[in-house]
Specification:
2 domains; binds pyridoxal-5'-phosphate; Aspartate Aminotransferase, domain 1; 16 helices; globular; seven-stranded mixed sheet; Aspartate Aminotransferase, domain 2; about 450 residues
Length: about 450
């Protein structure tokens, strides 16, 4: 057993209050990993665990990339930190310029944050600030979608549509369009046929609230944590058209779908629908250093670049906005994506991925399988009297069998690193077949 594993075996688990985890359940039977490389973790009991989720949808280039480690080390020893409030350092400008080059058309103004949650709250504030700058300060209402996830800030949970994340807290003025899950779409491959009309829910909210009160609509192009729900054919286009009709900004949360997850730099490019603002995080640094970026269109950015030049245009920012070390990690990550053509690699693997996931359709309890790019979900019929139990047991069973999957209710979600091979896709299907077959 190596040093890291030995240390893990003697770890006191009591002090760490774990996020989004049933702490007591976990600490009674912990699942610990101690190192990672490429597509694999090593567990504290010395097993190799295939990373079926790219960490938490974020390690897109695979683990322990030496180029990123070297860039981070170099940056730490060159300029470890400098504020971005009224002073600058070149690497943040360089990184923003590089990001602008791969951004969807026109989304070439980049505001740095530290996480997906901060990106969501920043984007929502930006939308409200945009309307205010144009003399429409009454447009403050935010619209999200049921089953949407935009992190855990007050803005994100207000537009978010996951009830457990919302029910305990005071929320901002927000309303929601329906989610797009529909049993009529069960076992669709890629984008489902049914549900384009659910975008028209926005018309009803406009009728209810008045367009002049609505600042923005925020959706994930593919809902992630809410169940991996690819958009129905034509749905995003219709949402875009309705936003244009009513002067409402469209925000895409691409925290998961950005940086190649769907085989294109961003979902926006894959689907051919460009939002006004786009949030990103996760894969932007291959998850090595926390960082997020909000991409704004010229329309939004330029509306705020008005008034006296001595006045701060957007009263918003974080101590670590544009952190030089995070930017160094991000630049090294973009280099890897480009050099290894990883977004194209993900696109090329998507067909194998789809076939492998849908090969599990015959298994007991499986009521739906969804996929797009290198994302996927397998949904189970809830066990009577024990909702979410099958999802949880599948997650634990997979870990024991050497695979990480994510669970959130009665489905498991998968999103492997983009470097995955055809053989590894086959291995994921094989492990899942064993695990799901054994579910009660
Ligand atoms: C779509 C989406 N938005 C926002 C977030 C929040 O990101 P973070 O956990 O970095 O705050 C997540 C996290 O999974 C996400 O999936």
């Amino acid at each position: 057993m190596d040093d890291a594993a030995q240390l893990a075996n003697h770890t006191d688990l009591s002090a760490y209050w774990m996020p989004f985890t049933a702490n007591r359940q976990f600490k009674a039977a912990p699942r610990m990993v101690v190192s990672a490389s490429g597509m694999y973790y090593q567990s504290d009991d010395g097993r190799e665990i295939l990373d079926g989720t790219a960490g938490l949808w974020c390690v897109n280039a695979g683990h322990a990339r030496p180029e990123i480690a070297a860039a981070v080390h170099h940056q730490l020893m060159t300029l470890d930190y400098a504020s971005s409030f009224n002073s600058g350092h070149p690497i943040a400008f360089d990184f923003a310029s590089r990001l602008a080059k791969i951004a969807p058309p026109g989304l070439d103004r980049v505001f740095f944050v530290n996480s997906g949650s901060e990106a969501a709250d920043t984007a929502l504030k930006m939308a409200i600030a945009y309307h205010r700058a144009r003399g429409e300060g009454q447009r403050t209402r935010l619209i999200g979608r049921e089953r949407g996830y935009h992190g855990v800030g007050f803005g994100g949970i207000s537009v978010g549509g996951l009830v457990n994340n919302r029910r305990a807290y005071p929320l901002l003025s927000a309303d929601h369009i329906r989610h797009t899950a529909d049993p009529a779409n069960a076992f669709s491959r890629g984008l489902p046929d049914h549900g384009v009309e659910r975008a028209d829910d926005l018309e009803q909210l406009v009728a209810l609230h008045g367009a002049e009160t609505i600042a923005a609509v925020m959706v994930e192009p593919v809902a992630g944590a809410g169940g991996v729900l690819p958009p129905p054919k034509g749905y995003l286009e219709r949402l875009r058209a309705l936003c244009d009709k009513h002067g409402i900004l469209l925000i895409f949360d691409e925290v998961i779908t950005g940086f190649g997850r769907l085989g294109a730099p961003f979902a926006s490019q894959l689907f051919g629908v460009t939002p006004d603002i786009m949030t990103t995080a996760k894969g932007i640094t291959n998850a090595t250093i926390p960082l997020g970026a909000v991409f704004a269109s010229r329309k939004v950015h330029d509306a705020l670049m008005q008034g006296p030049e001595t006045v701060t245009e957007f009263f918003h920012g974080y101590t670590y906005s544009g952190h030089p070390v995070a930017c160094a990690a991000g630049l090294a990550t973009l280099d890897i994506y480009a050099r290894e053509d990883l977004f194209a690699h993900a696109a090329a693997r998507s067909a194998d991925w789809e076939t492998a996931l849908h090969s599990l359709r015959d298994l007991p309890h499986v009521i739906d399988i969804r996929n797009v790019g290198l994302m996927g979900a397998i949904e189970f019929a809830p066990r009577p009297g024990a909702p979410a139990a099958r999802g949880y047991e599948a997650m634990v069973g997979a870990f024991e069998a050497g695979l990480t999957v994510r669970f959130a209710g009665d489905f498991i979600a998968l999103s492997p690193p983009l470097i995955i091979t055809a053989e590894q896709i086959g291995r994921i299907a094989e492990i899942l077949r064993g695990v799901i077959s054994a579910l009660d």
